[in-house]
Amino acid sequence: MALGIASFVLPMAAPVLGKPATYEIFGLHHQGAPFDPMALAISAIILSLAASAYGLLFGKSWGLAACLVTGYGGVAICLGSMVHSVASQGTLTIRLELLLQVPYLVKLHKIKPLWLSGARSHREA
Fold first, then answer.
1. Which run of H or of E encompasses 24?
2. How confident is the model at residue 125 (pLDDT cuts 50, 70, 90)?
3. Domain span including residue 92
4. pLDDT tens digit string along 26-55?
5. Tens digits of residue pLDDT in 66-90
6. Which residues cross the membrane (predicted)?
7. What are the φ/ψ torsions at residue 26 (nearest 5 degrees)?
8. Can you spell out the DSSP letters for 44-87?
9. Which residue of 2, 45, 47, 125 has the fewest CB atoms within a 10 Å radius of its CB?
């Protein structure tokens, strides 16, 4: 959630400090103006991750589904950036984010039945 907040502060602070904004997540990288399309795309990814983290941490009914979507989206972006690296530079760069994403997704799938039963019991109450 801190990254989600930072994605709002960084575009405003970078011009004041006279430094370019730098964004990087899942192999996507941008350094430059904070309102370039790539910077906005990375900010949108960070905000979606922050929103899904909020939903999971505070037990919102949509939290688990949002985390699964952003988790699989993160894996897809990591794999896509790895393929792009091979195609453009001829070198394979293994993204370390995958080492965290895979156990994260496994854990989300393990808690899914409990989460769904909890959501049902809240609706019935």
1. strand 21-25
2. very low
3. 2-124
4. 888 888 877 888 888 988 999 999 999 999
5. 999 999 999 999 999 999 888 888 8
6. 38-57, 64-87
7. 55, 30
8. HHHHHHHHHHHHHHTT-TTHHHHHHHHHHHHHHHHHHHHHHHHH
9. 125
Q: Please check the confidence at residue 19 and state whether its pLDDT lies above 80.
A: no
Show contacts of 45-54: CB within 8 Å, 24+ apart: 45/73, 45/77, 46/3, 46/4, 46/6, 46/7, 47/4, 47/7, 48/73, 49/3, 49/4, 49/25, 49/74, 50/1, 50/3, 50/4, 50/5, 50/7, 51/4, 53/1, 53/4, 54/1
Residues forming a β-bridge with 21:
32
